[in-house]
């Protein structure tokens, strides 16, 4: 790719402009020095000067523009990487690459291997500015702010163009990056009227867990909530007493004894409920706050969203679930498992709302209409494991993307009521369901678009695959 104009903006800071110019010349691109008082010309390459951004392009000119800060460098393979990817993608107006940082001695570190386009993540973390190409004309450069003009231009292009395309290799070496903004505002419906939510809780014995879960559900700060407890054959006296008490307090108790089939239990419960939204909830989930349901419900009502899941923590405070990555363990795995919830982790991913490939049904909110449209949970192929992954992938396939929402944070006492399938029968069943998942969704072959080919598939942590 040769039709690229690099705009090196000296108006809001200075740095090693000469090094930036040399890297531009090395890949054969043209440079414009914007607002440089004493431009340090390099000994090669095409260089122009401009006082205003709009002056960088002629009136009838349209080309790829690359914004660089003084001191930032292009990878020696940037032109090749962007060119190979850009050919045949004439509809794209934004191409972006991965990047790393350089210190004052030119040593590279902290590579950012980015997801494919994730509009929800971008709303909280600008991972494109400073490492992208923008297809623009002179008119696109009008009326942009002096500071943050690239982000403003990106926003303008995103409103009218195709989704940005990701060149999944390092194309930029940078001195600094935009920081993520971790949202803290509470999500609320704009009006007092809220959609009715049907909360479905499968259970068997384990009265202490169910009691904890029901206490949190009853304390929820929401409007109309319908509670359905699916009893899968409880026999313990304290559990039976708790179920009777729950009925007296208005919960529906659906008694479905027999072999545990998570998909069938929930599907039958859905058919007996009336809410606009369905909240699938494990009986071993604890709710430290009261606003979690509205946070998830607001997101689930969006036309672009399918299943919504919260951040789940272990009782020790570490992360149990921050979205699901397809391909981990050749199947699917919970992202960022075991990490600290308030730490930066991998570029703040565990702390930011974002599209994901799937979320866990330990707590999952979805509209009834969308759930019905994709055929509900698959009772035959996925009676116990991967039913939530399959559901989310079916929703994604219809254009309803799964969403991870960490502003809702719950505690999950994982699988205490059912165990971990360590017996022979459980291992055989799990193997069968894993085979079904791989056959249907190719999870042993495909790459999750929100992960990266240079990140390990063997771990739930986002670490380099060395």
UniProtKB/TrEMBL annotation:
<dbReference type="Pfam" id="PF00535">
    <property type="entry name" value="Glycos_transf_2"/>
</dbReference>
<dbReference type="InterPro" id="IPR029044">
    <property type="entry name" value="Nucleotide-diphossugar_trans"/>
</dbReference>
<protein>
    <submittedName>
        <fullName>Glycosyltransferase family 2 protein</fullName>
    </submittedName>
</protein>
<feature type="domain" description="Glycosyltransferase 2-like">
    <location>
        <begin position="198"/>
        <end position="325"/>
    </location>
</feature>
<dbReference type="InterPro" id="IPR001173">
    <property type="entry name" value="Glyco_trans_2-like"/>
</dbReference>
